[in-house]
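Curli production assembly/transport component CsgG
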Amino acid sequence: MTYFIKNLVPLFLFICMSINAFAQNDIVLKNDGQEMIGNVTQINNDDVNFTYKNEKIPYVIAKNDIHKITFSSGRIEYFNKDGGGKNISKLGDHHNKVAILPFSFVKDQGDGAMAMSKKIQQETYAIFNKKKNNLQYQDVQTTNALLIKAGITGGNKDGYTMGEICDILGVEYVIQGMVSVERTGASSYSNSNSTISNTNDPNRRQTSRGLIGQVFSTSKTNVKSNSSSSTSDDFSTAITMNIYNDKGDNIFNQDHSSFWSMEDAYKITLNYLAKKTPLYTK
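Structure:
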């Protein structure tokens, strides 16, 4: 018991120090919803001097761009509650807006083609947009253009929080996911047909599928058989779907493996998962 307490005390002190370090920062909330965490060094008539935490570079923020400042002391000072006269607050502009990010696509445990990633993104947009109700879904071309302008690519997107991506896209929610398709084997199919003809009666012909046994007749009978076979690949498909809000909270996370073995079985699975989300209205 004494050993447990000795190990618990340092952990408790570490948590207290972390909370205290966070509390020593000021938080500037801008009208566009962006949060700036650091230190407010001076408040002037028209602007505010600010430095980010763990940085020394000074910034100047116009007061017209600030909604409120939460100081490290706990005091809150509001700016532009009514939009600041000339500047109308944009905090609500992103409300009920949704963007769908390009889905990660993995085939046979390797990175899939970017074209396929964007194809799934477009198909996901089509599924949700049909049931949008009071939501506004951002066109995927607009989403991708905004990501490119912000310098966000598949290689560096992990360096951004989903809250930051929401701000960049100007939406309240983003839908993100991954589709994994893996070849598991092959299935073979065969088909056979038999044609019976009576040589004494040329007008009398009979076709039978899967003829079994011998046809007995006093007339001479000819039997012709045709057979064909085909092979198709079997695939295992799994999808993970996430929804984040503009605060960076993950409000939906679910994965599902498809029952079907076709290569494009992901389409059925996308529909299934979409219906499970809080954004899909029936």
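Residues 1-6, 11-22, 83-90, 204-219 have pLDDT under 50 and may be disordered.
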